[in-house]
Amino acid sequence: MRKETSTNFINEQSITDDCPIAATIKAIGGRWKLMIVWNLREQPLRYKVLQRSIPNISEKMLTQQLGVLVEDGWVIKKDYGEIPPRTEYSLTELGQSFIPILNHIYTWGTENSITEKVNAKT
Q1: Could you say which of 20, 26, 38, 48 is the most buried, measured as most Cβ atoms within 10 Å of its Cβ?
Q2: 3-state SS track over the chain
């Protein structure tokens, strides 16, 4: 997290304050947030099930990104207070409202063979 007095922070704020696209990209940015939201689109998932559904995500990163999504109001964390611990994650109304956009992105990526093009470059 940047200091609120830093030039980078001030520049970022001025861009996101004036541009809904930049603000949205900032909210969903990063490698894992969209994958987490996508995997929660149909039903609540327990932590380990969610982790298995996202290849190569570390426990640390999943925990961190879930925390940010909960804090930002995209995901709800439900702790059942049981032993062994049982926690489920689900999308809030805000998170659910983004699913049609992800569906469009998915369709566009499929129709334009984006996966194949990206994989060909590596």
Answers
A1: 38
A2: CCCCCCHHHHHHHHHHHHCHHHHHHHHHCCCCHHHHHHHCCCCCEEHHHHHHHCCCCCHHHHHHHHHHHHHCCCEEEEECCCCCCCEEEEECHHHHHCHHHHHHHHHHHHHCCHHHHHHHHC
